[in-house]
UniProtKB/TrEMBL annotation:
The protein's name: ABC transporter ATP-binding protein
InterPro entries noted in UniProt: AAA+_ATPase (IPR003593), ABC1_TM_dom (IPR011527), ABC1_TM_sf (IPR036640), ABC_transporter-like_ATP-bd (IPR003439), ABC_transporter-like_CS (IPR017871), P-loop_NTPase (IPR027417), Type_1_exporter (IPR039421)
Organism: Parapedobacter deserti
Lineage: Bacteria, Pseudomonadati, Bacteroidota, Sphingobacteriia, Sphingobacteriales
Locations listed in the record: Cell membrane
Alphabetized CDD domains for the sequence: ABC_6TM_bac_exporter_ABCB8_10_like, ABC_MTABC3_MDL1_MDL2
TM region(s), chain numbering: 43-64, 84-106, 166-183, 189-209, 269-295, 307-328
Domain ABC transmembrane type-1 stretches: 44-330
One Pfam entry name: ABC_tran
Record's bilayer topology term: Multi-pass membrane protein
């Protein structure tokens, strides 16, 4: 029987949705079984052991009944000696075999489940990281991550225990019912007329109580939100002298928790009394009728004992089915979602080391020809409209324009995070789509606005640009990026841990690490998404110097926010509302007079 809880201590997996079992959902879930294939021999042996241990469990009631009969000088079965000692020894031998078989069964199942689950985890992770960016735009990454881990834990639970438990209970139930008939048909008919009714009532009632318990949890969560909100905004609460208001709000929330919990407890009490009454009632009925049969000489005392023990087995199996079924349902739902991720269309990026070898070197000439683009998640808004520009190999090209006009989108198209809806992106005069994705991304580096570092050491973070880099190369890159000195100022130098997402470093330091990373990658094309957050003038000078170093000898696309930094660019492309409205050198654009560039430039000068 599923145990009820009226508190909020359930694990997240308990909240996993339970889909209806249909052919389609089953077919999807079954797809995951291919992951068992490499371990099928162990799985089959485990299954055989499982059957053996369930079957041996079924012998005990018969043996114990025979032992009681033997005590009264009766022989229950012709194949079993009628002396207590022999039956006791046989029981212990079977018990020993059962323990041994159970050990191997558990060991094998867990091994198979863990190994195949590791394969599923690895494949879903591989798939996830090779999915196009658009997939992530439509989902919250945290949610995706916790969903996936809850789903996988559910599948793991099912593979390690639920599956085995279900098979065991099916064997015990069918074997138990058959043996009940063998021992006494009359008693079994009585039993079978009571037991299923009880089980059905218990399941329906159980569901009702479970609903109540969920409501209690929701209410508790609501009251916790009050605490959280109040504490987060404690200064507001105090400033408005609203302590009394918040206390009353919390107290109201608590009252509703108590109300629903007490209601739940009432039903639970009724349920428990009902179950106790019925359960013991059934036992009394069976023993009553059984004793009458013994008195009539219809069955022996040993038979009655055997019978009662089998009844306990059968009742236990019946009671365990609702929870097992619910777990299987959840696992099937979980498998469906995992399969969805496994079936998503991946990008054609390779995961092998040799995929990092560049097969089509790019010199650095970039051209956009009438490129139009709308994000797949927001098709109705055309972000880029007929955008055309060109940067020769080694040139510096700047893209400027107001916020939200599509500058970063241009960068995403260069990196081929997305494909244009119409028009062409060309590298060295060849269409981008004719290059393997890995070739493009291996030769384009981006220094983004918000530099994200991984939680390891500075050395590892720089090496992310080229994982095979030697220690010396990392230091050279850091020196060129103006980062070496500040790194050496840390007691642990290059082994300093940067903290989660690089929080232990300042914005300017993070940027210089990102520049060192890009230097190490040594790309043909560089995209600089200039930081909008202002650094102090010393950091800005250091970052600027590092950027100058980085831009040497390669094509640079600078998404510029500070126009002062791009005066020297070979070409400045002015974008407004997704369209190129002007392009030329700084002087040419300024000479034009009242254009957008002129306006923006004047605005920035005025700000200084
Ligand atoms: N992944 C996305 N899905 C849907 N729309 C997006 C996505 N990313 C950006 N956009 C939208 O596309 C438009 C252009 O965004 P983009 O980031 O390219 O502008 P930007 O010029 O770089 O802005 P900023 O100067 O503020 O960085 C915006 O309206 C933005 O809301």
């Amino acid at each position: 029987m599923a145990r009820q809880r009226l508190n909020s201590g359930d694990t997240p997996s308990k909240d996993l949705p339970k889909p209806k079992l249909t052919k389609a959902t089953l077919r999807k879930a079954i797809k995951l079984l291919v992951y068992l294939r490499p371990y099928r021999t162990k799985f089959i042996v485990g299954m055989v052991f499982l059957f053996l241990s369930s079957l041996t469990a079924l012998t005990f009631p018969a043996l114990l009944g025979a032992m009681i009969d033997a005590a009264q000088g009766k022989q229950s079965y012709s194949w079993l000696p009628a002396d207590i000692r022999s039956i006791g020894i046989i029981s212990f031998i079977i018990l020993f075999v059962q323990s041994l078989v159970s050990f191997f069964r558990i060991r094998l199942f867990v091994e198979v489940a863990e190994k195949s689950l590791a394969d599923i985890r690895r494949d879903s992770y591989y798939n996830l990281i090779t999915l196009p960016l658009d997939f992530f735009a439509n989902r919250r990454v945290g949610e995706l991550n916790s969903r996936l881990s809850a789903d996988l834990s559910q599948i793991q639970d099912t593979m390690t225990t639920t599956l085995a438990e279900t098979i065991r209970q099916v064997v015990l139930l069918t074997g138990g019912v058959c043996l009940l008939f063998v021992v006494s048909g009359k008693l079994t008919l009585l039993n079978l007329s009571i037991l299923p009714v009880l089980v059905i009532i218990a399941v329906v009632f159980g569901r009702f109580i479970r609903k109540l318990s969920r409501k209690a949890q929701d209410k508790l969560a609501e009251s916790n939100t009050v605490v959280q909100e109040t504490l987060q905004g404690i200064s507001n609460v105090k400033a408005f002298v609203n302590e009394a208001y918040e206390a009353a709000r919390y107290s109201r929330a608590l009252q509703s928790v108590v109300k629903i919990a007490v209601k739940g407890a009432t039903y639970r009490g009724v349920f428990a009394s009902f179950i106790i009454f019925c359960l013991f009632g059934a036992v009394v009925a069976v023993i009553w009728y059984g004793s009458a049969l013994v008195a009539l000489g219809d069955i022996s005392v040993g038979d009655l004992t055997t019978y009662i023990l089998y009844s306990i087995f059968v009742a236990g199996s019946m009671g365990s089915f609702p929870e097992l079924y619910a777990n299987i349902q959840k696992a099937i739902g979980a498998s469906e979602r995992v399969i969805e991720i496994l079936d998503e269309q991946q990008e054609d990026v390779g995961l092998l080391e040799e995929d990092k070898v560049i097969k089509n070197p790019i010199e650095g000439h970039i051209a956009f020809e009438n490129v139009s683009f709308a994000y797949p998640s927001r098709r109705e808004i055309t972000v880029l409209k007929n955008v055309s520009f060109e940067a020769l190999a080694g040139e510096k090209i700047a893209i400027v324009g107001p916020s939200g006009t599509g500058k970063s989108t241009i960068a995403s198209l260069v990196l081929r995070f997305y494909k244009p809806d119409s028009g062409r992106v060309l590298f060295d005069g060849r269409e981008a789509s004719s290059y393997p994705l890995t070739d493009i991304r291996n030769q384009v580096a981006i220094v983004p606005q918000d530099v994200l570092l991984f939680g390891g050491t500075i050395r590892e973070n720089i090496a992310y640009g080229r994982l095979t880099a030697e220690a010396e190369e990392i230091i050279t890159a850091a020196k060129r990026a103006n980062a070496h000195d500040f790194i050496m100022d840390f007691p642990e130098g290059y082994d300093t841990l940067v903290g989660e997402r690089g929080v232990k470093l300042s914005g300017g330091q993070r940027q210089r690490i990102a520049i060192a990373r890009a230097l190490l990658k040594d790309p043909a094309i560089l995209i600089l998404d200039e930081a909008t957050s202002s650094l102090d003038s010393e950091s800005e000078r250091q970052v600027q110097q590092a950027l100058e170093e980085l831009m040497k000898n390669r094509t640079s696309v600078i998404i510029a926010h500070r126009l002062s930094t791009i005066r020297e660019a070979n070409r400045i492309v002015v974008v407004e509302c997704g369209q190129v409205v002007a392009s030329g050198t700084h002087e040419e654009l300024m000479d034009k007079g009242e254009g957008l560039y002129h306006h923006l430039y004047k605005l920035q000068l005025a700000d200084r």
